[in-house]
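Figure 2 data, in text form.
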Amino acid sequence: MSAKCPACGSIIYSRRNVLCGVCGRRLPHELLFTGQERENVERDLAEAKHRARLATEARLAREQRDSY
């Protein structure tokens, strides 16, 4: 079940943000990620961006190689 903003009732789509994306009110601490959870998410995002960058570079290298 999705967490909801206690002020407006909208679904909280990101527990990393301290403010509700709809009404802008501050979300209660218990609805947010802990420091460790936030670090884990940030690490996972950084790794995913790195993998995507490597895949793009490999694709561009293949396209350049194949165009000769």
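Caption note: DSSP finds one helix and no strands in the chain.
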